[in-house]
Amino acid sequence: MIRVLLVEDEDLIRTGLRMIVDSGADITVVAEAGDGATAIDAVREHRPDVVIMDIQMPRLDGLAATRRITALPDPPAVLLLTTFDLDAHVDAAVEAGASGFLLKNTHHEDLLAAVRAVHRGDAMLSPSVTRRVLRLASAAVPAASAAAAARLDRLTEGEREVLALVGGGLSNAAIAARLKLTEPTVKRRVSGLLAKLGCDNRVQLAIAAIDARIVPLT
Q: Residue 58: which residues within 8 A CB-CB, separation 6 or more?
């Protein structure tokens, strides 16, 4: 079972999230919290696999709580939920080490899929957020894009192929099928990419690929 901590300050929304999450046969809610500070204590106590975290909360917001949670030993994956898709939130979520970013109007089946995705180590960005990041990358000045591309100079051709597909949102299994590789080989290349590019997770890898424009703009 995938163990989930729900962090949301509005009781009604948190109750709805619990109903959705518990509807997944392989997912269960092990604890709830109403603010970021309580969430950190709950992570230490319950050791969830995934934290579903609101961004706008009292005492300690979701972004600050995510930074502290991802700095813990063996941290859970954090999936941020918000009603906003502002550029600043996307950038801050990636910087904080979040494994995923979804809007609260996401369909319940997509929310369950996101929980499963971040639990297995895949990145999860909602389609609207992905389109926003792609637009930002396409609007970037050439010098910024060139600087982002220069970061990839140390990569092998195989690593660049994997990075481009990570940027396209593909899972390890899908990348393995696309490149006719074994899944362990893809995992090793992803681990190598994280180390070479100084990224903490797949979301940051995806952003690096998009910034360098090696992901087709759609």
A: 9, 35
Q: CA-to-CA distance for 182 and 205, rounded, in angstroms? A: 20
> Tell me, what's the pLDDT at 44?
97
**For the chain, what are the domain ranges?**
2-132, 141-211
Higher pLDDT, 144 or 58: 58
The highest-level CATH class for domain 141-211 is mainly alpha
Question: Amino acid letter at 53?
Answer: M
Q: What's the confidence (pLDDT) of residue 127?
A: 58
2-132 against 141-211: fold identical: no
According to DSSP, the β-strands at 50-54 and 27-33 are unpaired
Signed CA dihedral, 196, 197, 202, 205: sign only: negative
Report phi then psi at 13, rounded to 5: -65, -40
pTM over 0.85: no
Residue that the structure tokens 């990041």 belong to: 133
Cα separation, 126 vs 100, whole angstroms? 8
Q: Domain 2-132 sits in which CATH superfamily?
A: Response regulator (3.40.50.2300)
Residue pLDDT, tens place only, 161-194? 999 988 877 778 889 999 999 989 998 999 999 9
In this structure, the number of other CB atoms found within 10 A of the CB of residue 123 comes to 26
Structure tokens at 36: 């970021």
